[in-house]
Amino acid sequence: MRPAHGLLLLPLVVYLLVAVVWYEWRVNPLTGDEPHYLLTADSLVRDGDLQVVNNHQIDTPVLREMPPGAVFTESHALNGYSLHGIGLPLLLVPAYALAGVLGAKVCMALLSGLAPLLLYRLARPILGDTRWAIAVAVLLGLSQPYVIASNQIYPDLLAGLIILYLLGHAAEPSPQGFYHEAPAGRTSKFGAMARAGIIYHEAHEAHEDRTVTPPQTVAWWRSGLLLAFLPWLHLKLTLPAIILWGFYVWRLVRRQKGAHEGHIHLIWPLVASLLGLAAYHAVAFGSIFGPYQPGDATTDVSHISMILLGLHLDRLQGLFVLAPIYLLGVFGLALFAAADGPLALLTGLLYLAVMLPNALHTNWYGGVSVIGRFHWTGALLWSLPLLYGLRHLRARGRSALAVGFLIVTGLCQVVVLAKLLIPNAYLYNDPLVSVAGWTESNPYSDFFALTPWQRIQFLPSFRDLTTYLGAPVNWVALGLVVALLLAGRRTLR
Fold it and tell me: Which of 32, 53, 259, 295 could form a disulfide with 368, with the two C-beta atoms 3.0–4.6 Å apart?
């Protein structure tokens, strides 16, 4: 391991510092759904069961870390069981038992610290350069949503990490997964790649007849268990799990001779997981589909469209506003699809599977939680087209342009973090119906002290169903995204 690889631990250090400092200074204390996830962990530690109603009524470490005067309400429980997925509480039980709420937050930060390592292993074969791969992984790791989301007790960011890992395993026919090194001299459509290249179709035949060794079997089991764990984090993650499962099945059928035992280890845990989850839901809620009701989602197309756009472009909730580095991913979409169509298609399906349910939710943008929560899961998937965009610029001799883009977006991230890391009012609107808070609060507007008129004119807002289509700045923001997409497509000609 080269000394430079130690930089990949820098984001983890930042995550841990933010978790501890916020906890000690009571910045962004437990709000929204966070205490309900932790109360399930408390019940498991204290009572050895999943019944949380009695834990609502007693003094617990969870209650003590909530804002002053906060109380638990029965609206988050049904038949005595929490409405929220039990996968995250089960995962946090050891940390919570050892160190309470702080232990749980540190555990989340440690898990989030895997993001730069995963991003590096993703970037190394695509970019073919260790220094570039480390730089991109660290920059992404120090951007949104990781720094802010890393210590939050929500399953969203963890789900994104699991999906990206499984996507990598699905993309590569070899047991080593997506990151297996290509033979020297492999090239792509856009020029010579470095010796470490992504193998997709090229390695297919070479691995068909290999037997599964014990280490490879462990790798398949690991991926299989992670795939099975997704629906336990949240029921809506069943769809991306099934999409990945379907891809594995398709590959098995396509390969025929390659239906090794190790592949079965990856597929069947999901079946057992879904059966177990259905059984738990039937016992707890009287329905295999859990506690969810038809009113929890909307079919209003105008609502869905606005929220889906807002998750990308809104001044307070948009991924491209809070982390503009991902705009390079928009430029790289066409390049990604041209270089590896099946992987790009699978990535796109997974992205829709995690973003559309969030756009359907009647509690816009995630309710009382840190801004951007509903795009946390999908954010990691933009890393793939982003890396293809960077690779293209470097292959065309535009490295200076790539460096300039990273510097500018890095400075934007400094502005965002400068406002988000200190006590602020950047939780979702409270009260939820207030439009004024939404209009007035934004990291950029606060940092540069923009006037109310400037905020309205220069920052896109997807908050008001009756006015968002008439705002010129919203169309400018959307036009920028479309222009970047078309620019990437034009480079293919």
Answer: 32
